[in-house]
């Protein structure tokens, strides 16, 4: 047994300057052979990429809230909350490490702007911001880089996702698009 297993997670975390989180760990070092052996990413047809196809459509039809020079901002079709936005580069890349400096910088600027607009339009109290990289990292569209900007409010979550696999989203996407697009234009 390793020292961490023998001493327990709580003691190991304290020894390493961490804070115990109350979870037990099942250490499986034999799984590293599978992880390190990994498979190369499958090829992907850009013409079928839902984020690439939005670029050639109208803003209203594609639910694009803003178009920048290197990136655009679009409503998520499967939102966690009303106003759930994604900041996407126009270029079809799957990994943050593949982004040019200009793409990376504009993603940051547009993420900040999205936060401002969402707060102005809907009184957002907090945000979840992030990227899921690769299918195993949780990305639903793993071959096209996108950053989520999810507005949050006190009490915005309930039991429905747990017991019924259902999300209650109180605002229709078209209404959300209209409100955010108008507010974004006023920010310029």
Automatic annotation (TrEMBL):
Binding site for substrate: 76, 148
Xref: CDD domains: FHIT
InterPro entries: AP-4-A_phosphorylase, FHIT, HIT-like, HIT-like_sf
Motif extent (Histidine triad motif): 144-148
Keyword list, A-Z: Hydrolase, Nucleotide-binding
Catalytic residue list: 146
The HIT domain, residue ranges: 51-159
Keyword set includes Signal: no
Pfam families cross-referenced by the UniProt entry: HIT
Domain of life: Bacteria
GO molecular function, one term: nucleotide binding
PANTHER family reported in the protein's UniProt record: AP-4-A PHOSPHORYLASE, HIT FAMILY HYDROLASE
Protein's name according to its UniProt entry: Hydrolase
């Amino acid at each position: 047994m390793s020292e961490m297993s023998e001493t327990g997670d709580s003691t190991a975390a304290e020894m390493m300057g961490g804070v115990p989180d109350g979870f037990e760990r099942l250490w499986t070092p034999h799984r590293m052979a599978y992880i390190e052996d990994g498979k190369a990413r499958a090829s992907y047809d850009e013409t079928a990429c839902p984020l690439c196809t939005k670029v050639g459509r109208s803003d209203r039809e594609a639910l694009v809230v803003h178009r920048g020079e290197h990136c655009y901002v679009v409503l998520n079709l499967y939102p966690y909350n009303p106003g759930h936005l994604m900041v996407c580069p126009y270029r079809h890349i799957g990994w943050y490490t593949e982004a040019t400096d200009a793409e990376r910088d504009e993603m940051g600027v547009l993420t900040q702007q999205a936060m401002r607009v969402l707060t102005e339009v809907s009184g957002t109290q907090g945000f979840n911001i992030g990227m899921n990289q690769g299918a195993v990292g949780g990305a639903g569209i793993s071959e096209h880089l996108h950053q989520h900007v999810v507005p949050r409010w006190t009490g915005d979550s309930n039991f429905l996702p747990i017991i019924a696999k259902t999300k209650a989203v109180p605002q229709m996407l078209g209404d959300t698009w209209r409100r955010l697009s108008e507010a974004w234009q006023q920010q310029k």
